[in-house]
Amino acid sequence: MAYGAAFRCIAGCAGEHSLFDVIYRCPRCGDLLEVVHDLGALRARSAAAWMRLFDERWLRTAWPYGSSVWGKKEWVCPAIADESIVSMFEGSTNLFWAERYGRLLGLDDVWVKQCGQSHTGSFKDLGMTVLVSVVREIVRRGRAVRAVCCASTGDTSAALAAYCAAAGLVAVVFLPRGKVSSAQLLQPLANGALVLALDTDFDGCMAIVQRFAERDDVYLANSMNSLRIEGQKTVSIDVVQQFDWEVPDWVIVPGGNLGNVSALGKGFALMRALGLVAKLPRLVVAQAEAANPLYLAYRAGFESFAPVAARPTAASAIQIGNPVSVRKAIRVLQEFDGIVEQASEAELADAAARADLTGMYCDPHTGVALAALEKLAARGTIRKGERVVVISTANGLKFTEFKARYHEGLLSGVEAPRFANRPVEVAADYDAVVEAFERSTAARGGVA
Fold first, then answer.
1. What pTM was estimated for this model as a whole?
2. Do residues 232 and 123 lie in contact, with contact meaning Cβ atoms separated by under 8 Å?
3. Domains and CATH numbers, the chain
């Protein structure tokens, strides 16, 4: 069976474009494009047969299907040659049952999809494997591409640099100077990318990179390029597959440039269209209060949308005031009966720390999503017995400064960290050690 996919305008303009064309916006109206698949061809295989095929490929070594993205190749980019694919075996990450954390909230079915357990430590790998593979295919077909570029708050640049290094392509990344963690800055440097640190925020970097990508010899890797969405949508397929093809009641995701919620919605909608699932989950986008344009639009009933000047936040990857994928995100939220919630700096930091005390090690963006969960649970919007999946977008090890400042009581916007834990300095004396132990366990009530 020949499966097909093409770019099409999200506003409905006529015409399609090859996935191997260098194009990001509709040439008629200027709106974003999305990848559409030939559903008639995909429906020729039964839902049961798709589930069986995907289960057979799960975590296998047959190239390229061991990757959870390329294990769904027919649903992602069917026409690409296998030899063009650049993969680090993405996806298939742990779906962690947060049993103890959920109990603290009065819930009994809370799960955390740990997308940070990936090659570069974030969910961005899922989309970048698709985009860089397509660039490699474009080059194989004879087009000169001198570099692949992106604006980033850290994780996108790390993924782009790693995949370009594996593919033998040049990566150019635009970062807001002094506004990414040391670990995130070091990743693209280590992988040989040209790192341009600009005296602006992400939105400023985005404006410049879009202009830079107008060059004929440069390819744009930001999420306005909907190839990334095709990889990221496999998170929702992964989740359902890990639940033996059952759909959770809620999915909560941090929202910055808003490509991720668009991707999740697309994955769930495709599964329903092909008969693998019968229902859709409710989606929640969680934004930092310091960068909350979607939340403000939601509160106004999505009657209008206005960018904001994003203020500093510990959740630096979502410090975005003018998200590129806002129209896609609003469309998905309306289809999925979605909710948008926000979190203050104290709320996101305390939520991450509370989860850490139950065995996790959360990045600040996951903290935003957990804070939203805590608010919705406290209101009774999310109830006991409902299955909730929180999308953890990055590895907490990339944000050691955030952790250190929280426990030292030095994190901006957090005056009284509720779960701060400092080393106890004790003399090298056995009796002093016992005294410190007894004092600490008494203060905790004997419970960790």
1. 0.94
2. yes
3. 95-120+229-408 (3.40.50.1100)
